[in-house]
């Protein structure tokens, strides 16, 4: 009985032991190798993922810096545009004042011309008018005055007066 007991207990012991065949050992090694390869692949993937996240943070920082720079440039551009608008408005006001001054001067000059025409027009003035080149300067100045080219007319009258300082007819038109 003891022999049976020993035999049965050794069978139970052997049955409870995990005995593996060579084929089972190969399968287990292949599984370990596959697990090892998968773990390496996972570690490589996590490293690549970490690198990509780091690159994305760097790019996001650059985008933020560019965005800030763009906003600063836009603000500076807006300020420049506003300054230019104010400058244009100022220049337009100055031009308007100059135009008003020119119009007032033109009106005074026209009034002076109209006041002189009755005095200067007539046969007595024509009879006492100078002859030759001086007469040409005076007629040219009168023609320019009638054509409303006041600047040239003033120059011609001044030339006539410079050549004929004692003649009264040129002084009245100037």
Attribute tags:
single chain, 174 residues, 6 helices, mainly alpha
The low-confidence runs, each spanning 5 or more residues with pLDDT under 50, are: 120-130
Radius of gyration: 56 Å
Mean pLDDT: 82
Q: Give the termini separation.
A: 160 Å
Strand content: under 5%
Helices and strands, in order, run as HHHHHH
| Strands, total number | 0
The number of helical segments is 6
Largest sheet: none
Structural class: mainly alpha
How would the global form be characterised? rod-shaped
Helix content: over 70%
Please characterize this protein's 3D structure.
- By secondary structure, this protein is mainly α.
- It has a domain of 60 residues.
- The protein is built from six helices and no strands.
- Helix 4 runs antiparallel to helix 5.
- The radius of gyration is 56 Å and the shape is rod-shaped.
- About 6% of the residues have low confidence.
